[in-house]
C-alpha cells in the first residue's frame, strides 16, 4: 500500500491510499474529501470496469441515516490509469511531501441512467460485491457503458433503465425541487486529486549507439466527475441544494 499526501481544493491536506493487486489485475485508491466523505476508486482492468464509491456523512438532524453510500460504475478505458503491475512497484520516496498532480484532466459530466442489481453485479466485476455492499440500492451506470458490456457477454438482467425526464416531464433537478418526498435528478460530484495516469519513458543509448526506451517514472493527474442520476425522493439527495 502506498500513502500519499495531497492538497484538496480548499487547501486542506488529506492522505490518499493506493493499492494494487497485480494477481487480480486491479487497483484501488481511497481519499477523504473536505466535507468528510470517503471516496474510493477501484479499477478492474480485467473486466474493463471502474467503480466509484462515495460514503457521504448523513445529516442526522434532517432524518438521514449515519451515512449514505453511492456506487457509480463506468467503463474503464485503456491508458486512463497506469497498469496494476506498475502501480504495485511504486514506492513512496518522501512521505511528508504534499503532492500536486502534474496534469488536470477535464471534468467529466456523466448521466447515470441505469441501475445495477447488486446481487447479480458480480459477473460485471467481482469487486462490486465488496465495494458496493453498503450501496446495494444505489448502484448506477450508463446506457452506453451497458451496451459495451453486453457485447462482451455480460448478462443484461442485472441492468434496469431508470426513469428519464422524457418519461416524467415534471422531473426536476433535486436542487430546484421544493418537495423532499418527490422524485428528482440528483447530482453528486467527486474528484480524484492525485493518481498515476501515465508511465513516463526515458531513452538510453548503449555503447554501440543503439537507442532503447525504459520506464522511468509516472505522470500524475487530477480529475473531477459529476454524476447525475434519478432518486425516488429528494430526501436521498440533501447535499444537492442551493446553498
From TrEMBL:
InterPro entries: Oaf, Oaf_C, OAF_N. It comes from the Eukaryota. Residues 1-149 form the Out at first protein BRICHOS-like domain. It holds the Pfam family OAF_C. Signal peptide: none annotated. Residues 173-241 form the Out at first C-terminal domain. Belongs to the OAF family. This is Out at first protein homolog. It comes from Corythaixoides concolor. The lineage of its organism: Eukaryota, Metazoa, Chordata, Craniata, Vertebrata.
Amino acid at each position: 500500500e502506498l500513502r500519499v499526501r495531497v492538497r484538496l481544493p480548499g487547501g486542506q491536506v488529506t492522505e490518499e491510499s493506493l493499492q494494487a493487486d497485480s494477481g487480480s489485475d486491479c487497483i484501488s485508491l481511497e481519499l477523504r474529501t473536505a466535507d468528510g466523505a470517503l471516496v474510493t476508486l477501484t479499477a478492474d482492468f480485467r473486466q474493463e470496469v471502474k467503480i466509484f464509491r462515495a460514503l457521504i456523512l448523513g445529516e442526522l438532524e434532517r432524518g438521514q441515516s449515519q451515512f449514505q453510500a453511492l456506487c457509480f460504475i463506468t467503463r474503464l478505458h485503456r491508458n486512463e490509469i497506469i497498469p496494476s503491475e506498475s502501480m504495485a512497484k511504486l514506492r513512496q520516496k518522501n512521505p511528508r511531501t504534499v503532492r500536486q498532480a502534474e496534469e488536470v484532466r477535464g471534468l467529466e459530466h456523466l448521466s447515470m441512467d441505469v441501475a445495477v442489481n447488486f446481487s447479480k453485479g458480480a459477473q460485471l466485476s467481482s469487486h462490486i460485491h465488496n465495494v458496493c455492499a453498503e450501496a446495494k440500492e444505489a448502484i448506477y451506470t450508463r446506457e452506453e457503458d451497458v451496451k459495451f458490456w453486453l457485447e462482451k457477454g455480460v448478462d443484461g438482467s442485472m441492468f434496469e433503465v431508470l426513469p428519464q425526464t422524457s418519461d416524467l416531464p415534471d422531473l426536476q433537478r433535486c436542487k430546484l425541487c421544493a418537495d423532499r418526498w418527490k422524485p428528482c435528478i440528483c447530482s453528486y460530484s467527486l474528484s480524484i486529486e492525485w493518481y498515476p495516469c501515465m508511465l513516463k519513458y526515458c531513452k538510453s543509448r548503449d555503447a554501440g549507439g543503439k537507442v532503447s526506451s525504459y520506464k522511468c517514472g509516472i505522470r500524475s493527474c487530477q480529475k473531477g466527475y459529476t454524476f447525475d442520476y434519478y432518486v425516488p425522493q429528494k430526501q436521498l439527495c440533501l447535499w444537492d441544494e442551493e446553498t
